[in-house]
Design brief:
The protein is α+β, with helices and mostly antiparallel strands. About 10% of the residues lie in helices and about 25% in strands. It has one domain.
């Protein structure tokens, strides 16, 4: 991803409009390294612009799905994910021209684990796992005030250029970072089905009813991504 995209985010805070495209954004986690794996459904096969996942790889990675539910094609480029208040940036994927009705899936792009988004824990211990199978930041009802603040500050951010306009989305359900800790340390598998970004995570299966994506064009998303310190690349 171009460094300028993140460096200019603070300037864009005062100028970008809240124009909405007809895209639904989902987040999940795929783990076929450990026992009892499952893939978020739908998944894809064969590497292409619409399926940016390493074929045949042993996957331990976050996953992003973008559906074009509108009537016009959308150009998605410079996709990136910011973790730990922007201390870690993943910028691994090629642009895609997403035609109406099409889906694009983005995850681990090499045989090595280059999108292991659960590998940046910030909570000292898992809490609330029994509520939804993930726990941590995905179960705010059991967090202390201080833990809630830590989770908010460390919300994973997805950003990309949409038709040459910077947009960002906050994974407030903490799917990509598996609740803010390494779920693989307490469970035999880290797989999490698709969840509409910004939605409440009730379990680890796919979201039963698709919800509109939460658009966060301003605020925490862009601010976090300006804090670029350590890029992570393929």
């Amino acid at each position: 991803m171009r460094m300028g995209l993140f460096a200019s985010a603070a300037i864009l805070l005062g100028s970008v409009s809240a124009a909405r495209a007809d895209l639904d954004i989902y987040v999940g986690y795929v783990d076929n390294l450990r026992p009892n794996p499952f893939l978020p459904d739908p998944w894809c096969s064969g590497f292409s612009a619409n399926c940016q996942v390493a074929p045949g790889a042993r996957l331990d990675a976050g996953a992003i799905r973008i559906d074009n539910v509108g009537q016009t094609a959308e150009l998605i480029s410079s996709l990136g994910v910011g973790m730990r208040m922007g201390a870690v940036i993943y910028a691994l994927w090629d642009p895609v021209f997403l035609v109406p009705g099409a889906t694009a899936i983005f995850s681990q792009t090499t045989q090595e684990e280059n999108f292991d988004t659960s590998d940046h824990p910030f909570l000292p211990a898992a809490v609330g796992v029994g509520i939804n199978g993930i726990g941590g930041c995905s179960t705010p009802q059991v967090l202390s005030t201080e833990e809630e603040k830590v989770c908010f500050d460390n919300t994973p951010i997805i950003a990309f250029s949409l038709n040459n306009r910077l947009v960002s989305f906050a994974d407030t359900g903490h799917v990509l970072d598996t609740g803010g800790f390494d779920l693989g340390l307490i469970d035999d598998n880290e797989s999490i089905g698709w969840h509409s970004i910004g939605s409440i995570v009730t379990d680890r299966e796919n979201t039963p009813i698709p919800e509109p994506a939460t658009w966060a064009l301003l605020g925490v998303g862009l601010i976090a991504l300006t804090a670029l310190r350590r890029p992570v690349r393929a």
